[in-house]
Amino acid sequence: MIGRRGILTGGAGLLLAGCDRVVQIPAARRILFAGEDMQKGLQRALTDRAALAPEFRPEQMSPVFRSNGTRDPGTDAYRALADARFADWRLEVGGLVARPLRLSLADLRGMPNRSQITRHDCVEGWSAIGQWTGPMLGNVLKAAGVRPAARYIVFTCADLYGGAPYYESIDMVDAFHPQTILAWAMNGRPLDVAHGAPCRLRVERQLGYKHAKYLMRLDAVASLAGIGKGRGGYWEDNVDYDWYAGI
């Protein structure tokens, strides 16, 4: 039986030129996400959620690493931040936390950082291996004093879809996974705009659309009910992507 990942990597006839187009075809959507409500529960029940994603050697890094999703938010606010080399950018950490934070790039760089060389698997059907550096999200949440009632972390981004900020979410298991980091560097250099500057999520056990770019704030919440249409992410709400995109 061919699983979803096999379809994604081998079903070229279904794959179009972007994440926002690949499942616009009803037949493709049915194939890609058939039985996901049952599969995701079974997958999460049977999979070791603490297991590490494979890591690679420097010589295995891809010579070209495509960008996924938005290539440039293109708003006046983002352009001003980029023109100032993100000196005025702050990551807001709030919601169900005891100590709300406003973190600068210097703050993130000053925390204990993790570097990992991992493979990015995109729903568009391509993969690439690159190095990412940043503090573990779990350590940021500990610094903020995340409250026991929190069940999810919601990420709000600088890029706009339909005039509203892009958003994504993960649960606390993935939030505290050691390979889930707030990456500010790629391949030993600060992130460029196409790859999510100044900071993006890396949640290495999930498909690429979960790796939110252009992070502006993150909130610990008890429920996804009030987030968008309640499914936890822009693509989940609008194009029937699966909320748990584990690989």
Automatic annotation (TrEMBL):
Gene3D superfamilies reported for this sequence: Oxidoreductase, molybdopterin-binding domain (3.90.420.10)
Database matches in PROSITE patterns: PROKAR_LIPOPROTEIN (PS51257)
**Listed Pfam families:** Oxidored_molyb
Q: Where is the Oxidoreductase molybdopterin-binding domain?
A: 86-220
Q: So where does this one cross the membrane?
A: none
What's this protein's name?
A: Molybdopterin oxidoreductase
